[in-house]
Design goal:
Largest sheet: 3 strands, antiparallel
Number of domains: 1
Number of helices: 15
Radius of gyration: 21 Å
Strand order of the largest sheet: 1-2-3
Length: 411
Amino acid sequence: MNERLKGKAPRKLLFLFEILSLSLIFLYSWEGIQTETYVIAVGLVLLIYFSNYLLGRISKGDSYIFLIVCMLISIGIIMIYRISPDLGLKQLMWLTFGIAMFFAAYFATRYISFWNRMTVLYLAASYLLFAATLIMGSRTHGAINWITIAGVSVQPAEITKIILVFLLAAFYGGDEKYRRIRNAELILMIVVYSFIGLLFLQRDLGTAVIFFGVFTGIQYIYSEDRRLIWANLGLAAAGGVAGYLLFDHVKVRVTTWLDPWPHINDKGYQITQSLFAISEGGFFGTGLGRGNPSFIPLSYNDFIFSAISEEMGIFTGIGVIMLFMLLVYRGFKIALRQENLFFRIVALGISMVFGIQAFIIIGGVMKVIPLTGLTLPFVSYGGTSVVTSFIALGILQGASEKRGKAGIVDE
């Protein structure tokens, strides 16, 4: 009885949050409410309510991570709809498909028991996705990270991030035969750095940083050879210097990070407009529809945090940051409570992916770190990003349930 009350209370608060959020859309469209407005409002409420209700009926795991994400997607779709109603409708479709994939990933994680014995498959799938990107990929905003299949654009690196987590979990928490190989951890580090090198060839620096961050975090916790950790940090420092010297786009990112103002009309335009937008919003924002997010290139995607801060205020921006902090905290808590080593590492790795990616893009648009082209998980517009983020969340939801040594959920 207490568990049911515990689950219902957050859902009621979420419903109140949705009503308050959607009122912003109606206020924004008050002078001419269109069909798209009703579709977004009704569709989002139904999607979130029924998905939370269904999850509460089928899962005995963490009851908060999906609620946190629902708040993030609500803020994101409101901002995307304000920038472009057409993109708002498309985002609602991607969210619907993403939530469907969330449940598919949850059931796959819950009922398949041999995830920890597919190290070779993870390795092969990663290299296959990298090869497909380099061979069939098209260059977008300087990076080769999109391939088009049957008219649908896909970003394979988003999928590879999840595979990397499973690869590391399978090595450190799966079949011991791979760890018995001589210099096994050194071979693993070479493999991961080959992934990072391929990402540099694609000029996908943001994803390369995520790969390095996740690998370093898990290596620090589970590696018994501390020399490899120092070697990893040394290689990362050397790689950063080499990237700056060899790649012009890296020099541009560092230059505009250090001092973008002399380049305000060209290569520093994005970051300066982002800073203007955040400062213009102040604490409470200019109001939905009263800002100028269109001044920022890709304001619905890479720079959506700046657009949110401009029109909804820095308090809302801080709220977004706190939601990501809560999501990562819950993920770490899931990992600490999980007795199965493989799924403990999976939960830890996915939490790191969410945390590192959010830090990189939010820190980039605020000029805390050099800017890299990444989406803000669950908030930015994008098909592949939304779907793969929900798949990762579904895996995390499955990992939050108590498991036996075989990996199957203990009923």
